[in-house]
Amino acid sequence: MKIVRDAETLSSRMNHRGACACDNDTGDGAGVLTAIPHTFYAHELKKTHNVDLPPYGKYATGIIYLDKAHHDESERQFTELAKECNLDVLCWRTVPTVIGSIGEVARNSEPLMRQVFLTGNLDHQLLNKQVFMLRKRSTHKIPKPGVRFYICSLSLSVVVYKGLLTSDQLWSYFPDLKSPTYDTYLALVHTRFSTNTFPSWERAHPLRYLAHNGEINTLRGNVNFMKAREGVMESPIFGKNLKSLYPVVEPNMSDSGSFDCVLEFLVNAGTRSLPEAVMTMVPEAWQNDKTMPKEKRDFYHWSACAMEPWDGPALLTFTDGRYIGATLDRNGLRPSRFYVLEDNIMVMASEVGVYDVDPSKIVLKSRLKPGRMLLVDTQEKTIIQDVELKLNIARSRPHSEWLKEQILLEDLRETHLKKYKALPTMDDDISTLKGCSIQRVASVNGINEKALARMWGGDKRLSMFSYTIETVNLLLLPMIQSKKEALGSMGNDAPLACLSLFQPLLYDYFKQLFAQSKIIDITFDKKEGPKGLSIALDRICEESCKAAQENYQLLILSDRKSGPHRVPVSTLLALGAVHHYLIEERQRMKVGLILETGEAREVHHMCVLLGYGADAICPYLIFEMAGALRNEGVVDRTLTDAVLFKNYVEAMDRGISKVMAKMGISTLPSYKGAQIFEAVGLSDEVIEKCFK
Hints:
Elements: H1 2-12, E1 30-35, H2 38-48, E2 59-66, H3 71-84, E3 88-94, H4 104-108, E4 112-119, H5 124-141, E5 149-151, E6 158-163, H6 169-173, E7 187-191, E8 210-214, H7 219-229, H8 255-269, H9 274-281, H10 294-306, E9 314-319, E10 323-328, E11 337-341, E12 346-349, E13 362-367, E14 373-377, E15 382-384, H11 386-394, H12 399-403, H13 409-419, E16 443-444, E17 447-448, H14 449-452, H15 461-464, H16 469-482, E18 510-512, E19 517-521, E20 523-525, H17 531-549, E21 554-558, E22 566-568, H18 571-584, E23 592-596, H19 603-611, E24 616-618, H20 620-631, H21 641-662, H22 668-671, E25 677-679, H23 684-690
Parallel strand pairs: 19-21, 21-23, 23-24
Antiparallel strand pairs: 1-6, 1-7, 2-4, 2-5, 3-4, 8-9, 9-10, 10-14, 11-12, 11-13, 14-15, 16-17, 18-25, 20-22
């Protein structure tokens, strides 16, 4: 009972951290997650339903939001699904509430709250599996337009009370929480200030595993890639039934809700412990930490291959009933303070002053540091230190061995050089070059070698891809010569592409919001006219999907065949269409998308391509143009191919890093596919097909 009252005190003192509606009485959301108060529920059900609860751990319970008009039918469907999962519903209980304590806006959308109790003649592990399957299947099947159905939690160990409340109202709205027999060994409280989504009863925290302070800036990409993984995931626990758990991320979720869905899935279907799942989704900064042990670094490296980080400023608190803990994002952009007391109690909050304690009883007082994890194992009754915890997880599997199976771009380059080592190149040190090469060829699509050697009036591909003198002089030359992106004012005062009298590139419509390979030709015959674009996009998508199904691992979308008789599809258009088509067909995670493009050349171009799912980009025309500029004396003739390439790449790295920093995103895998753009002036048809 003491922990419940302490949680009430802590929650009430954070009332100023939450927001409220225009009626001043409706909060953005508040809630509490506790261990199941077995004694309290056993007494209540015996008194009101004459039901004898099984022992703690032998049954599951949870509060479900329903609507009064359809709740009988929803409960009937839920009971039938429970039987299909070999579970028996013991009873339904209407959760007591005091409606007079909440605001008018909250009352107008208040759900009917029903609490279900269910059990099964199964061991603990199998019972937990079936309860999770029931939670997912019922969430997918029961809700319909006009039918409300939301499970706050369904667990063998914890229960969530929450709503569209302020942190003060929470404790008076639910009389259960005032009962002297409501006892728990852990409590997780939260008061919400909505930022990215509109407040609702369902979006209040805590969620099923998580309470979250912050934002996930890479949400759209994370959700898209999770959807794409549904085509390749396997589970020894669920086997063929795994597909019944899809979609992993349910529709209309906030960033926190989406994170919670994936965390729940990794723990229940992925054979990961809760701390390991959190480490996978929110890794600390590891790439440049030379003091990090190799096993730990290899774990994070492997995790980055398995899942892109969910990136953004965030303090995440989590529990599954056994473990309760918290972690900070790699930059530590949210506050977190904690005390450990001599009576073996730990208190953590997003600020100090929310909990009264005698200083003489404090054993440890500290703050959570960037990327670090705080964890309590309630079974072992111990605090597990960050270093020990993560090393044990890192050593639990042979991650170093798994990493040896990776295919790197360097490997592809070396294979290419061995295969074509007889081809003449423009200088002798090209063998040291790890990226694209500038090779001398007789002709390209009807353009002879002599013409290719001249910038203007020779290589007509430059005009075809909308290169201008300003593009070359102001943007590209500084990158090639000085390794730096050209300086400019903050912001962009260029007219919107949709209002331009010129022919803008597709990239200009997008504004930033703060193994085995197969070549896919992305050009079409000019005789097909404007209709050829749509036909070509459909062909490109179908060829890419077929290649993925035939187990090709790398798809190269190439416009190299562009010329007098072949019209290139915009690389961005082709990429967006293929990326989303493969996601819908559940084939995206089987392949890497490499772009061979004459179109992309600026930092913004690369950012948009990365933001819409590109895994690697080879802007071949830039490097060929650099050779022509060197021949004409515009670029220092002593600069070798390798130096030109490295200068351009380094300038790109700096430019992309600067854009990512503005968005609060720390890693390229998180930025890739995140689609943090708004498209201005493109038709709905184009958006739906390529950029949804």
